Amino acid sequence: MEATKENYFYAEKPVGQLLSRRDFLKAAGVSVSAIAISGYAITDIVQKRKSYIALRQQGLYKDDKRLQKANLTGSHQNASCLKVYQDMGTKPMGEVAEQLLHTKTYVDRSNLLMQGAHHV
Amino acid sequence: MSEVSKIRTFPPSQESWGGEAAFEGMHRKGELRGIIKINQDNCVGCDTCTAFCPTEAIKGSLGVAHAISTNKCVACGQCLVNCPFGAIEQMSFVDIVMEKLADPKAFVVSHPAPAVRVAIAEEFGAPAGELTINRLYNAFEKAGFHNYDINFAADQTILEEGTEFIKKVRYWVLGERGEDLEHVAHHPLPHFTSCCPAWVKNAETFHPQLIPHISGAKSPIQMGGPLAKTWAAEFVWKKDPRDIYMVSVTPCTAKIFEASRPEFNSAYEYLKENNKIPQDTPSFQDIDAVLTARDAAEIFRRKGINPLTMSDEREMETMNVYTGAATIFGASGGVMEAALRTAYFILSGTELSNPDITLVRGYEQDIVEATIPVPLKALNGKVINVKVAVVNGASRNIKEIVKRLTDDKNQYHFVEVMNCPGGCVNGGGQPVRTMGTSWLHPLLPLPLRA
């Protein structure tokens, strides 16, 4: 069925009948505030979703400040560490330190997979 | 900020340690596998996790239940922390540790990492970043543990790794030669940190060419394990090392893997060699069990302990002494800053006038670069410029740092790699409070992603 010029007739209603000026202001006001509130909420979530990382970091730097005041800033100031070397009769990278505190065993895992390959 | 979400766990099974073969896939005999698992019934296939995986180990597309490739997974747990539906689960040793705590013969040691002290309180309703030190020690004591702070071992790490780095500078930058430098001749610069077990496994699997560059100094936990069973057993606790049961409490799920690496039984080897234990003693690991911060909170709950209500008073003991350098290990850039404080002191002979090297701290940037001028005492104050980089999060940045090292001129002396954005404070074992909004991540412009 094809619409022809002859049977097509439609006249728009006057705007005032559809939406009065007051109604328009109401509708516009409601939509603007809805958009603003949800936009604010989303921005808030986006900004806050990772804020816990910064807060935890700040907690650590607070601890650092506390220790700096106690003259414990760098690891070489830790008396317990120096006692370890003294008691064990070694020094950093000394023989015992190498045996207990260092490793030579990093494995090339890509190679490990190839060694295990099954060739049928 | 929202509440902390509950993460499901499962105990290790016999298969978790592998079979009798020397290696299976990319795991050696004894190494734990399948530490992070996606529950097929709960996964809705939203595909959020794949954006956080540093090794593209997660299989599955939108709408299909996802699965993790055991070989590729580095167990960092970033997928678990960011899953909006709580469908990803973690292997947990809570039941095993509870049994040990009930065993009167066992001397159970808690070994808490730096990042745990600023997060565990969140499980009990505290705001993010609440610092608990003595309250945490007292809570562990009440639960039946003896405490040995990992921060103390972190200071040990800096002394070892700092010494190693200085040797590398003497050999590779200043051109010195000598018997004590022979070892570093096989380990050229740039020096990579070895503290992050997810990064180490990532490098071993996908960037084996970097292996000679990774520091031979173990991570703080793996220094703490052997020291507890040798030095502390003999000189502090006066205990039989075979009765000591080391439980590290970490912000990290990859540490569960690290503790199972077969070479990390050096206390056993040392004690046997020096006839301090009978020769027929079966081998034991340096770290016997790893708990995540969430797991430790679960132990406290089961025992009816709330760290927030514990006393904040405690006398300083040898095993809990640590410095500011150690505590910042838990933040991205912290290992670098800690190492520089000590390396600067040793090389220049004076303390840094301002120990806060804020230049290297990572939170918003993916890769932080800095140049630190260090005057050398041995060369009458000649200044060398130490170029450093901090990789803040592995999922986007490992390829970039490798590109900068290989395509461009090899420009760094020292590179710190943290698998998790922000560092250990945002680790896979921490209380989870991403509010189920991680699906937003790929939609955000870069500065807001941090």
UniProtKB/TrEMBL annotation, chain A:
Pfam family, one: Fe_hyd_SSU
GO MF, any single term: iron ion binding
Superkingdom field: Bacteria
Domain Iron hydrogenase small subunit, residue spans: 47-110
GO cellular component, one term: periplasmic space
Keywords: Molybdenum
Keyword Ribosomal protein among UniProt keywords: no
Entries under InterPro entries matching the protein: Fe_hydrogenase_HydB (IPR008953), Fe_hydrogenase_ssu (IPR003149), Fe_hydrogenase_ssu_sf (IPR036991), TAT_signal_bac_arc (IPR019546)
SUPFAM superfamilies: Fe-only hydrogenase smaller subunit
Name of the molecule in the record: Iron hydrogenase
Organism: Sulfurospirillum cavolei
